[in-house]
Amino acid sequence: MTSNAFLPGLREALGAPGIAMAATFLAFGAAVQEAGLSPGWAVLACWGIYGMPGQLVLVQAAGAGWTGGVGIAVLGAVAVNARFLPMAVSITPVLSARSRWRLLPAVPFIAVTPWAAAMRALPAVDRPDRVPWFLGFGLTSWMVAGFASLAGFHLAGALGPEARAGLLFVNPLYYALLLAADLDRPAPRRAVLCGAAAAALAWLLPASVALLAAGLVGGTAAFLIGRRHGAG
Amino acid sequence: MAPADLALILTAAACLALRLAGVWLAGGLTTDHPVIAWATAVAQATLAAFVTLAIVAPAGALAEVPLAARLAGLAVGVAACLAMRRRLLPALVAGLAAMLVVRAML
Question: Both A169 and A189 in a single domain?
Answer without folding.
Answer: no
